[in-house]
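> forwarded from #structure-qc
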């Protein structure tokens, strides 16, 4: 088990991600190893828009979990030059000080959608960092509801300066 496993609640997610209802697709992070992997949770209720059940929004939810994972970076996650990074990583989370940065979903690869989501499901979004090159980060991801694998694949995030 990794040291530094933590949980992140909704209020803290609001502090990290720019997304708000109806475009925020995670309720909390239940298992985070900063800069390495995380598991997010989204409860699918009857109050949810039917579009939330869309495969493309499962990918977006995984990207949001990846963004949270990167926001809690360790000092060796990014290059030492703060100008190469953006506003996801904040110094109060063990990251680099300096300018703000933002993450962009830049690639979706080899995604398979294996089952449908149903009202009442608790959707677990598991993300793991597998590759890093400069300000580019590749993750493998899996969405599951109980023992059912809903979707799996890879996605890449680019972290860039929000000041240009």
């Amino acid at each position: 088990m990794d040291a530094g496993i933590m949980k992140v609640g909704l209020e803290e997610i609001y502090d990290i991600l720019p997304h708000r209802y109806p475009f925020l697709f995670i309720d909390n992070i239940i298992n985070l190893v900063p800069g390495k992997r995380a598991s997010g949770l989204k409860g699918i209720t009857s109050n949810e828009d039917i579009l939330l059940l869309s495969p493309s929004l499962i990918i977006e939810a995984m990207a949001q979990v990846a963004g949270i994972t990167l926001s809690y970076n360790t000092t060796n996650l990014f290059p030492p030059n703060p100008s190469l990074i953006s506003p996801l990583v904040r110094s109060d989370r063990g990251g680099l000080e300096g300018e703000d940065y933002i993450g962009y979903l830049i690639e979706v690869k080899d995604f398979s959608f294996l089952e449908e989501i149903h009202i009442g499901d608790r959707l677990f979004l598991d993300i793991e960092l597998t590759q890093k090159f400069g300000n580019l980060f590749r993750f493998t991801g899996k969405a599951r509801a109980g023992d059912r694998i809903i979707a799996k694949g890879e996605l890449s995030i680019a972290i860039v300066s929000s000041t240009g």
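QC bot note: The first helix runs from residue 10 to 16. Strands lie at 6-8, 28-33, 37-43, 101-113, 122-133, 136-145, 148-161.
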